[in-house]
Amino acid sequence: MFPFILLNNDEYSAEFPEQLGSKQKYWLKNKGKSYLFKIGRPGTGENWAENIAAELAELLKLPHAHYDLVIWRGHKGVLSPNIVPDDGHLILGNELLSNIYTEYTRDNDRREPEHTLERIYNLLMDAKIGLPADYDLTGNAIITAYDVFLGYLLLDTWISNQDRHHENWGIIQDSNGQRHLAPTFDHAASMGQNEKDDVREDRLKTKDNRRNISAYVEKARSAIYESNTAKKPLLTLELFEEAARKSPKAARIWLDELQKISINTCQNLFDRLPPDEITPVGKEFALEMLILNKKRLLNAKKP
Q: Does pTM top 0.85 for this prediction?
């Protein structure tokens, strides 16, 4: 089970609120370690989506932030150990890119046309940016930080995460100036967690090919653009296909990992959620999304 853990208010003390992002967040301290507590918005499944997405990332063998379902001071949310070591700091994508490209607007929200795949590729192919720290990739073709980021894009496509904007990825720099790609984090905007059950049920049952769940997953759009003149960001599958062409060996590694994951394994993850956290139709809808997106990825244009 993934039960909600009741945090002791005396043991987990609030340091300060986190300003980034749209959700209510607090940095908590326990036994000298920092944790980020995020409160899922009412009427959404942000808590379970964050929890399940991290478990799916684990199945894909991706470096990722860990999320536990918790209750703190009466609020339900997810708790994540700080991914940044004590001697390091996180530099987000908008800061990294605005330091290189003078026209880049780092303060824009997710709709930033300067946030392009080509710029991310050029940045993460820099040999000075290493693989995520303590991440064992022995024996495969994952060589560069970009190769790992490509795995993040596969995860986004699989779970229909539409929130890979320029503050939802970054690098970690340690006290010696060494830079490493940060683990993937913040996946709550995925698996249809914000849909109402009547909408889910309608999309699952309708014979209208414009409204069914297949059409729904095909519309999932990333927050990364093909070029700075594009009017809309790329669809999640389009983005993965474009990104895969830049590193085909790495793409095949991640696709092979996806191929190994059965729907029963995914079903077991959802079955471990508290029964009042996700409805049966919410579970069916999310699982069907994973089935369809896996098929789309494996049938996509081969890199």
A: yes
> Is residue 63 located within the same domain as residue 115?
no
CA distance 20 to 249: 35
Q: Give a yes or no: residue 181 inside a domain.
A: yes
Nearest to 35 by CA among 13, 4, 52: 13
> Is the Cβ–Cβ distance between 80 and 67 less than 8 Å?
yes
In angstroms, the Cα distances linking 232 to 97, 116, 162, 223, 263 are: 19, 11, 13, 9, 32
Instruction: Summarize pLDDT for 21-78 with one digit per residue, the tens.
Output: 556 889 999 988 999 999 998 889 999 999 999 999 999 999 999 999 999 999 999 9
Q: Which domain holds residue 48?
A: 5-81
User: What is the rounded distance in angstroms from the CA atom of residue 46 to the CA atom of residue 223?
Assistant: 18
Looking at the fold, whether 95 and 211 belong to one and the same domain comes out as yes
Any domain includes 254: yes
